[in-house]
Amino acid sequence: MSWLDQLAEHVDDLRRANHLQQNGQSAVALPILDGVLVSAADPATRAYALVQRFGALINLGRVAELAAAMAVASEAVREVPDPYLRGQLHAFAALGAHLQSNLDRGVTHLVQASRALAAVPERDADTAWGWHDLAMAYSYLGFHGQALIAIEQAREVGAAAGLAQEVFAAPGIRLRNAVALDHQGDTDGCLRVLRDIDAELSRYVATDQLRPGSRAVYGYALARRAALGDSTSSDATRWLTGGGDSARTRDLRHLGSVCLAIAAGRPQQALAMLEAVPVSAETLGAPEAARLRSICHSSAGDHAAAHAADRYAFRLAALRIDQLRDGYLDGVAARLDAQETHRDPGRYGDETLTDPLTGLPNRRQLERYVDSLLSRGERAAVGVCDVVGFTTINIRHGRHCGDLVLQRIAGVLHRVMRRGDFVARFAGDEFVLVLPGAGPHQAAEVSRRIGAATNAENWQALVPGTPIGVASGWSEVGSNGRGLSAALAAAAAGRKPTI
What we know:
Alpha-Beta Plaits, 5-stranded antiparallel sheet, Diguanylate_Cyclase, diguanylate cyclase activity, Nucleotide_cyclase, Diguanylate cyclase (GGDEF) domain-containing protein, TPR-like_helical_dom_sf
């Protein structure tokens, strides 16, 4: 029995919508899913439909709708503790982050999807397709080795459910691997992979195992091979027709036509086609259009222009690698911050008094700390800090990115505190700082360090297009008998952006 068979409502409708999406007909599947959501009351049914609807919007390239669709799907999945649904959601979310050019968030979703799908006990067709979608996400984000591992997992799980291995051929994974090799200067390696894809196509045509959604991928592989001057007996034009309604399929058809114009000796026409119809940089990577321009110029005999276009393509490919390295460095920094936060039990107490998201003390521990300080007759500066525009972050990028921002802000605050100071997560995006024995001058210096450290963070990699800042205000406890509540109210009233 498949995962879908366990749902209480609309199983046939959901299976039909699923089949349509697998065959590249997301525009047809979308109204079916919307119809299910109008009448379904079962939480698991609604969660599944919302996740699949999120996937359909990704396939159709409707980027403006992704943040809202993911927020609704995430909320529904949260109410249904099922690892398959979580894995499928995160696989789609990684693709969505890729379309939004948010590599850091996409990588996070890849890890979460892999962990969730690995925890699924059933080896059914639905789980196999979850691994397939994760493989696609790995591939689009440039993790070609991990994509091959995930697609092998899809084949293994699918075989246990009675699905032929050919169902999970996934030629798009090898096509993106091939063009990535070409972008990095290994054209011979690219051609070897393209020839393997051609041979596979011949086998699938002979056995009638070709998935309709793969037509444009095979067509582009053949056309790209022809553009590089490597002849093939297969007809690329035949496979560049049909194949579904996704934005990626449309891009492949257009770029395939460009390649065929190059192969036919019409480089100027190919250049005009490239300029006339923009394609998403996410389909085959940002360097692909530049690499095709280089091939056009070379075919026309303009080797200087070809060299310049090639250098640009290589620079774009290197930029992607640099982004991955930046993400790795940021991840190490965040881990070190978390380790430092948890390392001082005398300062931060036991886990029951700790905020699980940031590792900082929670409101309860803050109150105990200040009560102890006041009972000794001491005074302290108290600061209230919050993230400027945090609501916008959640709306535009989703709650997951909001959580990542809070974790990074917690690390910033922890790093700039003086020895013996206390920092807690109070509520939402609000943090409270306690500086024992400090006055206005010390508080101002801490504010300055907070502003400098916040501005030094690479927020664009995490939430592109959304500036991040911190506002803070200060007061005192223990002065004139002022307690914590009064100090927090006074500090909050005087908040202003830190610079």
